[in-house]
């Protein structure tokens, strides 16, 4: 027993612990043991009711023999747990401890190897999908998904120019190097790319792995009801890190902080933590799984990063927090490290938690969800900077501080940070959409920028300079008298 009985009874049910009153539902009990064996192991404690009161088992020796027979007859491949009788005052508990199994995937014999496989998701048992079963079978046979060759493809299916750009000048990418990095493998006398190589560097990646992309969204409020901007990242995986960061920065803001000797620009979101979380998601996603991409959701109070694929067998969330690492995609992980995107195996999650503590943010949350793993990073409560002497002193960034406060007040009224930024950008002179996008730091005129400009015109805050030619390439936008009054007194 890892914990004294008294302490064990206070623990919540979860990935590695379940309580049952008795053996009146043997199939549910067997599902739990199968799920434990297929995941990180666990303990089933029999003789405890739903109120966590010890009621014990009747005829402990008979029940011990019965459960051993149920396990032997009902689970395949054979599972050999540790079964103990534990005294608890005047009662006796039956404790079945299951260890992570090298013979996974285990299944209920009555349901067969396709329908009878279960995995543990929180405190419940979930029927495993075909993707998970295939991954478990690969692991049992010593195969790794992203190391497997793709014999139908060749070197011309890789973007060699992008590879040279990313690696320059660290490595010379000859065939020997690409083989040592496991980007190429010799298959039937010819070099072919591995799955990892296609995932990392192929322009046709999504033809072979349709869900190997990233979906980003910015939502109003605290849920996914009201989305006001979204972006899809389809670039090479190493480039995706920066592209996701750019999307997050687009909806963040900077404030100036002044030390004794210099000015420092501080982002409203914890970029260091988010970069670690993005890299972790891209490296550990299950790209064999169909149905969901990596998702990055930006809310008013947090940023959620979801990656497809449950934790690898034997891993728990506590293991992740302590720095234990098992790599699902070693080829992708090796390339990320070669490119300086990963510093040390297993250190990313620990750095995220340490940085949250350093910044005084709530502790991040890691949880397994139906499609994979979600990492939730909380944001600091946004407050307008307090006015100070430095805000109004020449050469100290006071104008930037004033802009931040102005944008925050406008955002509150317009219910859109992007609309607020457009109003501020138009306060000096009229501008076209392309000029506005450039001023806001956007690479292109996004659909959301189109939407907010139309909305400002409809509200009477902005107007076209050529109203009779709305589609003219010379079209610009300027503030109306109402828009100018809003700048002068944004609270009214």
Write up this protein.
The protein starts with a helix and ends with a helix. Mean pLDDT is 87; it is low at 383-402. The chain is built from 19 helices and 20 strands. Helices cover 37% and strands 20% of the residues. Helix 16 packs across helix 18. The longest helix has 17 residues, at 398-414.
Provide a compact summary of the structure.
With 492 residues, the protein is α+β, with helices and mostly antiparallel strands. Helices cover 37% and strands 20% of the residues. A 6-stranded mixed β-sheet has the order 12-11-15-16-18-17, with helices on one face. It has a 4-stranded mixed β-sheet with strand order 1-2-5-4.
Q: Would you count the extended β strands for me? A: 20
The third-level CATH topology of the largest domain is Heat Shock Protein 90
Distance between the termini: 66 Å
CATH 2nd-level architecture of the largest domain? 2-Layer Sandwich
What would you call the structural class? alpha+beta
How many strands, what sense, and barrel or not for the largest sheet? Answer: 6 strands, mixed
Q: What is the CATH top level name of the largest domain?
A: Alpha Beta
Low-confidence runs: 383-402
Strand order of the largest sheet: 12-11-15-16-18-17
Shape: globular
Rg over CA atoms, rounded to whole Å, is: 28 Å
Query: What fraction of residues sit in β-strands?
Result: 15-25%
- Count of helix runs: 19
Q: How many distinct domains? A: 4
Helix content: 25-40%
Mean pLDDT across every amino acid position: 87
């Amino acid at each position: 027993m890892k914990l004294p009985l008294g302490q064990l009874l206070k623990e919540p049910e979860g990935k590695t612990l379940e309580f049952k009153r008795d053996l009146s539902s043997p199939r549910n009990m067997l599902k739990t043991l199968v799920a434990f064996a297929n995941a990180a192991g666990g303990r089933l404690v029999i003789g405890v009711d739903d109120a966590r009161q010890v009621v014990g088992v009747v005829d402990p020796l008979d029940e011990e023999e019965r459960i051993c027979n149920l396990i032997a007859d009902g689970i395949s491949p054979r599972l050999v747990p540790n079964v103990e009788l534990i005294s608890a005052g005047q009662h006796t508990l039956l404790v079945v401890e299951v260890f992570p199994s090298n013979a996974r995937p285990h299944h209920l014999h009555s349901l067969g190897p396709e329908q009878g496989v279960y995995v543990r998701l929180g405190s419940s048992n979930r029927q495993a999908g075909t993707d998970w079963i295939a991954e478990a079978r690969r692991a049992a046979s010593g195969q790794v998904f992203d190391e497997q060759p793709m014999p139908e493809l060749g070197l011309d299916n890789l973007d060699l120019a992008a590879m040279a750009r990313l690696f320059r000048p660290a490595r010379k990418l000859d065939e020997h190097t690409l083989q040592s990095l496991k980007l190429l493998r010799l298959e039937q006398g010819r070099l072919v790319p591995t799955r990892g190589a296609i995932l990392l560097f192929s322009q046709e990646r999504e033809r072979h792995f349709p869900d190997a992309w990233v979906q980003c969204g910015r939502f109003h409020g605290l849920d996914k009801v009201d989305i006001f901007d979204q972006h899809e990242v389809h670039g090479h995986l190493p480039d995706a890190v920066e592209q996701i960061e750019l999307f997050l920065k687009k909806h963040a803001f900077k404030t100036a902080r002044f030390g004794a000797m210099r000015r420092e620009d501080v982002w409203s979101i914890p970029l260091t933590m988010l970069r670690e979380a993005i890299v972790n998601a891209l490296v550990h996603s299950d790209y064999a799984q169909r149905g969901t991409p990596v998702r990055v959701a930006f809310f008013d109070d947090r940023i959620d990063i979801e990656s497809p694929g449950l934790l690898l067998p034997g891993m728990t969330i506590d293991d992740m927090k302590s720095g234990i690492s098992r790599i699902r995609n070693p080829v992708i992980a090796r390339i990320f490290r070669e490119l300086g995107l990963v510093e040390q195996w297993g250190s990313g999650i620990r750095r995220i938690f340490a940085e949250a503590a350093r910044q005084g943010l709530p502790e991040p949350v890691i949880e397994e969800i139906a499609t994979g793993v979600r990492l939730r990073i909380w944001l600091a409560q946004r407050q307008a900077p307090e006015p100070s002497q430095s805000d109004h002193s020449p050469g100290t960034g006071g104008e930037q501080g004033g802009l931040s406060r102005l944008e925050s007040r406008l955002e509150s009224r317009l219910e859109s940070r992007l609309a607020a930024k457009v109003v501020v950008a138009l306060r000096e002179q009229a501008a076209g959409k392309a000029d506005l996008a450039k001023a806001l730091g956007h690479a292109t005129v996004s659909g959301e920028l189109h939407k907010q400009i139309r909305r400002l015109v409809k509200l009477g805050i902005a107007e076209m300079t050529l109203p009779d030619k709305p589609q003219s390439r010379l079209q610009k936008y300027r503030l109306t008298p109402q828009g100018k009054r809003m700048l002068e007194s944004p609270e009214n």
